[in-house]
User: Fold this.
Amino acid sequence: MQIQKAQQFGFLAANQKSNTALSKILEKLSTGKQINRASDDAAGLAVAEQLMTQVRGYQSATTNVDYAQAAQYIAEGTGNEVNDMLQRQRELAVQASNGTLTNDQRAMLNQEYQQINQEMTRISKSSQFNGQNVAAGNDLGAGNGTVLAAANPGSNISIQGANFTSENLGTASTDLSTPANAANALKSVDNAMQNLSQQRTNIGANINRMDYAKAGNEAATNNSQEAESRIRDLDYAQGVMEQTRQNLLNQTSLAAMKNFNQINGNNMLFLME
Assistant:
């Protein structure tokens, strides 16, 4: 009798084990995940979570770079406007260098020249991103701003500074009041244009660098997501095969227990006779 109970307990245990395994594989098939909790694969879960942390870090870093590029584009746009102003100042300086002009005519040229100096400074000081100046040598324009351009510390990119004011470019102290002054102003304007060109080149190079940083983040994000998916996601073909196997084991266990109980019942009837 004890042997029969032990055998019956064995059938029940096997059936319970098969039901538990079947329940797990059905959960995996319904969620599409190989790992739904730490008990499924503790080490695999830790690696998958770390990869997902990296993915979210790369995505946030790309947003950082987008903001930095926006600030740099504003500075570049300001530089383009200042370049047009310097071109006009150069035209005025060339005209004022003509000794055949009267003092009144030269004064009219000088008036426009000085207005342009004031406008260069005004537009440079009013160019801002998120309330911070980007083109007058202070705030972000001082070149001290940095952004974290990747998922981990130490991946900083600096925001290129800029100062397009007439004081910094060297035209604020010049005038066209005499032919000699106009000739000096012409040299100052040429130097200012060279200065401006160098600053704009630096900004453009930094914008391109940020494009590379974003492309690197995108590649790292895709690779990390693929690696995380390989660890966490379920292979459906394998899952269906496992479900079929567990169904067969479950059916076999139930059939075996049914036959066992039927045999025991026949034996009891035989003994009673």
